[in-house]
Amino acid sequence: MSRKLLYQIVSVIALLCLLAACVAQPAPAPAPTTAAPAAAPAAAKVTGKFYYVQGSAWHPVHQLTQLAFLDGCKELGLECELATTDENSLDAFVALADQTVSRPDAKGVAMWAGGLPIVKPIIEKAKANGIPVALPHFPVEEGFFADNAVQIAADTTKYPDAVAKAMCEELKRQGITEGSVAITQNNHNATEDMVAKVFGEGMQKYCPTLKVLPVELEGMEPTQAIAIAVSVIQANPDIVVGFSTTGGGPTTWAGAQKETGKKVLAVGMDYTRVNLDLVKNDEVWGVVAQPLYHECYGAAELLYKMANGEEVPYWTILDAPLVTKDNMDEFYAILDRLEPQMRPAINPDEKK
């Protein structure tokens, strides 16, 4: 294999990690800080700009995070700017991030960086330039990046246990005490592997009479993912739970139930409108609200504090609550407010 081909393969894998919300390595659980940081005092106002760096900016989920960061800036009265590119290549993201931390007016940078090692020199450069960096969504071990970088995200070692407990309580309410539990994930990465592991252990703890099946990879393509879930149902007719670690999972399990006529207690990731509608229509029981909005809103607050010399914890841990019909209105409200500000989601790679 040529070096050029090997480099191209590695770059594609790294880009997929960014879009699938994977991380370079899991972070140990620090002393928890469960709420977003409070705003810095108005008297500590700094001058200059705060930037939000992100590739694949066309993606609807990415657009939500951009608007969340700008909301945080508006609340604090900060001058902020998006440093984004619609390009999906890792090279484009790295070049953009490097340019942004080199700007003389930059007082802080939030970066949707995926925990990728290739970002290390950029964060070191930001440190040399006196620029704090906030990294939402992708927690990595403290010390992985330079000490001018902090994390704000949910804890994948914690919230899947709470989801398992809630699902077991619902099964017991329905009188279901026997059967199989299926777990599917997009691909093997540190985030999804940890969520699947913790959820499976939680099901064994809270529903000890159920059988947890081996994890299956559903992939990114919806038709293929549904086919995988259908095959799991057909091979395990006693199935009572379908859990997915990825944002396409609600569609996967809704489609599989429709094709097989088998009703299961199904939960997947992310409060997209499609997924919330599946919950509303009783096609899946719930979705996990990874804190996409709150972590990027909070990133602006963290940068403001650090730029004013305040100490903040390395990792601000946010909740990733289970969303069911009982509490879905607040997440619809987020989408109702932000979606009118979003542009059409056009993937530039599909136009080539």
Question: Which tags fit this structure?
Answer:
352 residues; alpha/beta; Rossmann fold; 7-stranded mixed beta sheet; 6-stranded parallel beta sheet; 11 helices; 13 strands; 42% helix; 16% strand; elongated; disordered N terminus
What is this entry, summarized?
42% of the residues lie in helices and 16% in strands.
Present the secondary structure layout.
Elements: H1 3-19, E1 49-54, H2 60-76, E2 80-84, H3 90-101, E3 106-111, H4 120-128, E4 133-136, E5 149-154, H5 159-173, E6 180-185, H6 190-206, E7 211-212, E8 216-217, H7 222-235, E9 239-244, H8 249-260, E10 265-269, H9 273-280, E11 286-288, H10 292-307, E12 315-318, E13 322-323, H11 329-338
Parallel strand pairs: 1-2, 1-3, 3-4, 4-5, 5-12, 6-7, 6-8, 6-9, 9-10, 10-11
Antiparallel strand pairs: 11-13
Helix pairs in contact: 2-10, 3-4, 5-6, 7-8
What does this structure look like?
The chain is of the alpha/beta class and 352 residues long. The protein has helices at 3-19, 60-76, 90-101, 120-128, 159-173, 190-206, 222-235, 249-260, 273-280, 292-307, 329-338, and strands at 49-54, 80-84, 106-111, 133-136, 149-154, 180-185, 211-212, 216-217, 239-244, 265-269, 286-288, 315-318, 322-323. It has 2 domains: 24-155 and 291-318, Response regulator (Rossmann fold, 3-Layer(aba) Sandwich); 176-288, Response regulator (Rossmann fold), CATH 3.40.50. Helix content is 42%, strand content 16%. Strands 6, 7, 8, 9, 10, 11 and 13 form a 7-stranded mixed sheet that branches. The longest helix is centred in the first third of the chain and has 17 residues, at 3-19. It is elongated.
